[in-house]
User: Which sequence fits this backbone?
C-alpha cells in the first residue's frame, strides 16, 4: 500500500493478494498458472507439479544438508570431527553423478517427452483426444497487429472481432496465427500456453475448456510500445450462447476488406479497450495478409510515438475519429 | 545502397541534432548536470593534486594484468550501480503504474506510473545489456585477469598489450551506452533484441544502433580477452604446474574462455547482419523479401546461451576457492569438479533452442533441446554436492567472503529448481515470457554477483595489503540478501499469477501488493549499496589496523596466488616457484616451506607500458558513435586511424625490458620489508616507466640467465 494512497485507487487490499499459492484452487483465483481452466494448461500444471516434486526432493535435501553441515562443522563449536585431508570418496562421487542422472532420466521421459506431445502446439494430444467423430471443432484465425488482436471465425461466415475472443465450452478450438508487423506471443494463462505469432509466418495452437468464464489474454512477448495494452478477454460460453453470439455477429452490417484491414493494422494502442466487430471479413484474409507481408508489406512506426502518451492519445483521437 | 533514414540527416553531423538531447527530461537533465559537475570536480581534483602523470603512467598506459583487472572491476562496479538504478526505476514504475485506468499523476507524459513506454522500454533494455555484458562480464574478466596469472605462477598475461586493448574497447562500449542517456535514445527491444522489431520500419530511431555497436564493442573486447586467457594458461604455467595441479578457478577460467572464444563471433556476425539490414537495406531478418526472422533468434542464442555459462563458470570457480579456504579443507572431488566445468561448457552449445520453445518447433526438436538442457543440471548438481561435502568434516569460519559464497549456493539451488522447470516445454509454455523467467535468471545472475562479492572480499588483501571490514561486509550481505528475497520471491509469485515480462502498465490490480513488496526490497537493496560504500570507506580509513603482514592473508588459503608477497609486486613472483602439489600453498604450509626464500635471483623480462591500447579504445568509441549517428566521415577517419595504429604497433612490437638479478634481489627485499611494515602506500609501483633506477634493456631471450648484454637498441629508462 506504499503508493496507493497517493493515487485514486485505494481499493485493493493487501491481504488477499498475499495469500499463499495453495489458495490458488479457490474460484476466481489470482494464481492463474495454478488455476488452469483449459485442458492444455491443466496438463502443463500437472507436469509442473511432477517436476517440482522430483526436483524439490533433491534440492530440498541438499539445502538441508548444507545447513546441517554449517551448523555441525562451525569452527570453535567442536560438534563434528575435523578431517583436513578428506577430499575424495568413490562412493559419494558415484552417488553425486548418479542421483542427477537418474532424476534427469526420469524427468526426461515422464515430463519432457510426454509433455511435449501432450501440449505440442501443432497437434496437442491433450486437446485432440477430446475430438469426437461428430463433434464440430471450430477454427479461428488470429492476426496480431501493432497492437491489436483480430479473431476471424471462417466457419461462421467470416465474422470477426478485435481484442475479444469468444469460444464455446467443451469444444476443441484450433487456431492459425500470424502477425502483421512484429513478433509477439498469444497467451491466455488459464487456458493455453504461449505460442509465437510471427509476421509472414503461420503458427498453430489448440485449446479446449470445460469451464465457462472470462479469462485474460495477453500479448506475452515484447512487440513495441503498445504491448501492455494489447489485451483480450477470452470468454468461454455455452454452446447455445455461442450460437446466439455468432447469429448476432452475422447480422452486423460492418464488413472488412483487405484495404480496410490495411487501415485497421496501422499502429494503434488500445488504451480504451475497444472491441470492434465485423459481420464479415474478406474470405482468405489471413492468407492474404501473410502473403502481403512475405512480399514486403510493412506498417511502419512513427518516431518518438509514445514519448508522451497524452500527446499520442490526442493524435489517436484525431486520426481515428471517423 | 544506404538506407534512407526517417528525419533529417546532414553530411557533417549525420542524424545528430539539438533536438536529440533530452534537456527537458526531468530525470536526465539534472543527472547530466550532476555528472558534468562531478566530472569537473574530478578533473580539478586530479589537477590540483598533480596526479595526471601518475594516472597516465600507472593506470592509463599500464599493461600490468593486476591493474587492468582492477580497472575492469571498477568499471564493472560502476555499471552494476547504473544497472541497479535502472532496476529501481523499473520496479518503481510497476509499483506506481499497476491497476486499471489513468492514475491521475500525469508524470513525464505517462498515463500509468511515471514512465511512458518510450522510456520504460529503453530502461529495461539497458538494464539487461548492462548487467550481463557491462557489469557481470567486466567483473569476472577483471577477477580472472588478476588471479589467473597469479594462480599459475606467471608474471603477466601472455599478451599484455592485448589485455589492455580488451579493457579499453570494453570501456569504449561503456561510454557508448552511457552517452545514449544524454544524446538520442537507447533501444526499446530488450537486451537481446527481437526480429523484426529492430528493423528500421519498427525502430526508426538511433536506439537500436547504439545497442548494436555497444554489443559489438564489448564482444570484440571479450573475444580478445579470451584468446589471451587461453594462451596464458596453456603456455605460461610455472614449472611443476601440471594440468592436474591447476586450481579450480583457473580451470573454470579455461572452460569459460573456450566458450567465449567460440561463441562471441556468433554474436558479432548476428549483429553485423542486423547492421546490414539497418544500414544497407538487406533482408536477413526482415519478415518479407525472403528474410528469416527466426534466424536471428537462433544466431543470437547460439551465442547467448554459452554466454550465460561464460559468466557463471568463473563464479563457480570463485566459490571453489573461497569455500575450501574457509572450510580448511581441499575442495571435495577436484577431478569431478573440473570434469563438471567442462561438461557444462560442452552442453552449453546444444541447448540454445530452449530460449524460444514457444516459437513452435515440433515436439521432437523441443524434446531434444529440453533433455539437453536438463543435462546441464547433472554437472551443476555434482558441483553443488561437491561444495556441500567440502563443508563436511571441515572447520568452517563464517567470514564475510564465506557468507557470500554460501548465499550463492542457496541462490543456485533455487535457480536450479526453477531452471529444471523451464527446461520442460510443457511447463515452459506457461511461464516462458512471464516474470517467473525473469526471477529464475536473476537467481542465477545474483549467484554470480554473490560469488563476485565473495571473491572481491577474499582477494582484496592480496592486491591491496589490507582486509575489507568484516562487519560491514556482513551487514551488506544480510541487507543484500533481504533485498534479494523481497524483490525476487514476489517475482516468482507474480509469474504464477501470470504476469508477463516488460509490462509498462501491469494491468492487473491483484498484482499490486506484490509490487509494493518488491519496492520495499529495492529500498533494502539501496541500503546494501550504502553499506558497500561505507565498507569501502571504513576499510580504507582503518587500513593500518587491517594490514596483512603475511603472504597468506587468511591463514588457511590454498592456491599459488597466496605464496607471493602481499600486496603483490608488479612482477608477481621474484623467483618463479616450482609447483609440487595441487593446492601448493596448503602443501607448503603443511611442510613448513612457506617462508623458504630463493637462494638466488634471475633477471626477469617485463613488458613496457603503452598508450596505443588507450588510443585504439578511444577510436573504437568514435567508430561506434559515428556509425550510430551515421556520421560517415567520423566513422571512416576513426577506423582508418585505428588500423594505422594497429599496424604501427605490430611493426614496432614491444621488446620489453630486463630487470637484472641484483635489482630483483633488492626489489624483493623491499617488497618483503613493505609487507612487514605498516606502510599504507599499498599499490606497488609497476610497469615499465616507473622506478627510475631500474636499468632496462631490450630482451633478446626472455629465458636468458646470467648477465645479459644490452642489445644495440636498448633504452635506458
Assistant:
Amino acid at each position: 500500500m506504499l503508493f496507493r494512497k497517493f493515487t485514486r485507487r485505494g481499493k485493493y487490499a493487501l491481504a488477499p493478494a498475499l495469500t499463499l499459492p495453495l489458495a490458488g484452487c479457490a474460484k476466481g483465483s489470482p494464481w492463474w498458472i495454478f488455476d488452469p481452466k483449459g485442458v492444455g494448461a491443466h496438463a502443463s500444471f500437472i507436469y509442473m507439479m511432477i517436476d517440482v516434486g522430483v526436483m524439490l526432493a533433491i534440492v530440498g535435501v541438499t539445502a538441508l544438508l548444507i545447513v546441517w553441515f554449517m551448523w555441525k562443522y562451525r569452527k570453535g563449536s567442536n560438534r563434528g570431527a575435523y578431517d583436513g585431508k578428506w577430499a575424495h570418496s568413490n562412493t559419494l562421487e558415484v552417488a553425486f553423478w548418479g542421483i542427477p542422472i537418474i532424476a534427469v532420466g526420469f524427468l526426461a521421459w515422464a515430463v519432457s517427452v510426454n509433455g511435449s506431445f501432450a501440449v505440442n502446439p501443432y497437434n496437442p494430444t491433450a486437446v485432440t483426444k477430446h475430438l469426437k467423430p461428430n463433434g464440430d471443432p471450430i477454427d479461428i484465425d488470429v492476426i496480431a497487429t501493432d497492437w491489436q488482436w483480430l479473431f476471424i471465425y471462417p466457419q461462421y461466415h467470416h465474422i470477426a472481432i478485435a481484442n475479444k475472443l469468444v469460444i464455446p465450452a467443451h469444444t476443441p478450438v484450433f487456431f492459425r496465427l500470424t502477425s502483421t508487423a512484429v513478433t509477439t506471443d498469444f497467451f491466455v494463462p488459464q487456458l493455453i500456453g504461449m505460442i509465437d505469432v510471427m509476421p509472414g509466418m503461420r503458427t498453430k495452437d489448440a485449446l479446449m475448456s470445460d469451464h465457462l468464464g472470462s479469462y485474460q489474454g495477453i500479448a506475452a512477448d515484447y512487440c513495441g510500445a503498445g504491448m501492455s495494452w494489447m489485451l483480450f478477454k477470452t470468454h468461454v460460453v455455452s454452446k447455445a450462447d455461442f450460437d446466439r453470439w455468432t447469429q448476432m455477429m452475422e447480422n452486423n452490417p460492418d464488413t472488412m476488406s483487405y484495404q480496410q484491414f490495411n487501415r485497421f493494422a496501422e499502429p494503434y494502442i488500445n488504451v480504451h479497450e475497444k472491441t470492434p466487430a465485423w459481420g464479415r471479413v474478406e474470405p482468405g484474409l489471413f492468407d492474404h495478409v501473410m502473403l502481403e507481408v512475405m512480399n514486403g508489406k510493412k506498417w511502419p512506426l512513427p518516431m518518438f510515438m509514445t514519448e508522451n502518451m497524452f500527446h499520442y492519445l490526442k493524435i489517436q483521437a484525431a486520426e481515428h475519429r471517423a | 545502397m544506404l538506407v534512407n533514414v526517417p528525419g533529417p540527416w546532414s553530411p557533417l553531423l549525420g542524424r545528430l541534432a539539438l533536438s536529440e538531447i533530452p534537456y527537458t527530461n526531468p530525470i536526465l537533465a539534472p543527472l547530466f548536470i550532476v555528472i558534468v559537475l562531478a566530472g569537473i570536480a574530478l578533473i580539478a581534483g586530479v589537477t590540483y593534486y598533480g596526479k595526471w602523470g601518475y594516472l597516465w603512467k600507472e593506470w592509463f598506459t599500464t599493461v600490468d594484468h593486476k591493474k587492468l583487472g582492477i580497472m575492469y572491476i571498477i568499471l564493472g562496479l560502476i555499471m552494476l550501480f547504473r544497472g541497479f538504478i535502472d532496476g529501481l526505476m523499473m520496479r518503481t514504475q510497476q509499483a506506481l503504474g499497476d491497476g486499471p485506468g489513468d492514475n491521475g499523476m500525469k508524470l513525464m507524459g505517462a498515463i500509468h506510473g511515471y514512465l511512458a513506454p518510450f522510456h520504460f522500454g529503453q530502461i529495461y533494455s539497458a538494464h539487461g545489456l548492462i548487467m550481463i555484458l557491462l557489469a557481470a562480464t567486466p567483473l569476472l574478466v577483471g577477477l580472472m585477469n588478476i588471479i589467473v596469472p597469479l594462480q599459475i605462477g606467471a608474471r603477466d598475461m601472455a599478451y599484455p598489450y592485448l589485455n589492455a586493448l580488451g579493457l579499453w574497447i570494453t570501456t569504449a562500449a561503456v561510454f557508448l551506452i552511457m552517452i545514449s542517456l544524454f544524446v538520442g535514445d537507447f533501444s526499446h527491444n530488450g537486451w537481446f533484441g527481437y526480429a523484426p522489431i529492430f528493423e528500421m520500419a519498427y525502430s526508426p530511431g538511433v536506439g537500436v544502433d547504439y545497442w548494436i555497436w555497444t554489443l559489438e564493442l564489448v564482444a570484440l573486447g571479450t573475444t580478445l580477452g579470451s584468446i589471451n586467457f587461453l594462451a596464458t594458461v596453456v603456455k605460461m604455467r610455472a614449472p611443476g604446474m601440471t594440468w592436474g595441479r591447476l586450481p579450480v578457478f583457473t580451470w573454470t577460467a579455461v572452460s569459460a574462455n573456450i566458450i567465449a572464444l567460440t561463441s562471441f563471433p556468433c554474436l558479432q556476425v548476428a549483429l553485423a547482419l542486423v547492421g546490414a539490414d539497418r544500414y544497407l537495406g538487406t533482408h536477413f531478418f526482415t519478415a518479407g523479401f525472403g528474410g528469416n526472422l527466426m534466424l536471428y533468434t537462433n544466431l543470437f542464442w547460439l551465442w547467448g546461451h554459452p554466454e550465460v555459462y561464460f559468466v557463471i563458470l568463473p563464479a563457480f570457480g570463485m566459490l571453489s576457492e573461497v569455500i575450501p579456504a574457509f572450510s580448511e579443507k581441499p575442495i571435495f572431488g577436484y577431478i569431478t569438479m573440473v570434469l563438471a566445468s567442462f561438461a557444462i561448457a560442452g552442453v552449453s552449445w546444444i541447448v540454445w533452442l530452449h530460449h524460444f520453445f514457444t516459437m513452435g518447433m515440433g515436439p521432437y526438436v523441443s524434446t531434444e533441446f529440453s533433455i539437453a538442457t536438463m543435462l546441464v543440471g547433472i554437472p551443476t548438481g555434482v558441483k553443488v554436492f561437491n561444495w556441500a561435502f567440502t563443508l563436511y568434516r571441515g572447520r568452517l569460519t563464517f567470514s564475510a567472503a564465506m557468507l557470500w559464497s554460501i548465499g550463492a549456493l542457496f541462490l543456485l539451488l533455487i535457480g536450479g529448481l526453477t531452471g529444471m522447470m523451464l527446461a520442460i516445454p510443457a511447463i515452459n509454455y506457461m511461464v516462458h515470457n512471464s516474470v517467473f523467467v525473469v526471477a529464475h535468471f536473476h537467481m542465477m545472475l545474483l549467484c554470480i554477483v554473490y560469488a563476485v562479492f565473495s571473491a572481491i572480499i577474499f582477494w582484496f588483501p592480496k592486491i591491496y595489503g589490507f582486509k575489507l571490514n568484516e562487519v560491514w561486509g556482513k551487514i551488506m550481505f544480510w541487507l543484500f540478501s533481504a533485498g534479494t528475497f523481497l524483490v525476487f520471491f514476489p517475482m516468482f509469485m507474480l509469474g504464477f499469477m501470470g504476469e508477463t515480462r516488460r509490462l509498462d502498465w501491469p494491468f492487473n490490480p491483484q498484482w499490486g501488493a506484490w509490487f509494493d513488496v518488491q519496492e520495499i526490497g529495492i529500498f533494502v537493496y539501496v541500503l546494501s549499496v550504502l553499506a558497500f560504500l561505507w565498507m569501502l570507506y571504513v576499510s580504507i580509513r582503518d587500513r593500518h589496523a587491517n594490514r596483512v603482514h603475511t603472504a597468506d592473508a587468511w591463514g588457511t588459503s590454498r592456491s599459488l596466488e597466496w605464496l607471493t608477497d602481499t600486496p603483490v609486486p608488479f612482477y608477481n613472483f621474484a623467483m618463479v616457484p616450482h609447483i609440487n602439489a595441487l593446492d601448493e600453498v596448503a602443501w607448503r604450509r603443511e611442510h613448513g616451506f612457506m617462508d623458504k626464500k630463493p637462494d638466488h635471483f634471475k633477471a626477469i623480462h617485463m613488458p613496457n607500458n603503452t598508450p596505443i591500447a588507450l588510443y585504439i579504445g578511444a577510436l573504437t568509441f568514435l567508430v561506434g558513435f559515428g556509425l550510430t549517428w551515421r556520421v560517415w566521415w567520423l566513422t571512416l577517419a576513426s577506423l582508418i586511424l585505428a588500423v594505422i595504429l594497429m599496424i604501427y604497433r605490430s611493426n614496432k612490437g614491444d621488446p620489453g625490458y630486463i630487470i637484472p638479478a641484483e635489482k630483483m634481489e633488492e626489489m624483493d627485499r623491499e617488497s618483503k620489508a613493505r609487507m612487514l611494515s605498516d606502510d599504507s602506500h599499498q599499490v606497488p609501483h609497476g610497469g615499465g616507466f616507473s622506478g627510475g633506477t631500474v636499468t632496462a634493456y631490450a630482451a633478446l631471450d626472455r629465458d636468458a640467465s646470467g648477465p645479459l648484454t644490452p642489445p644495440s637498441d636498448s633504452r635506458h629508462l
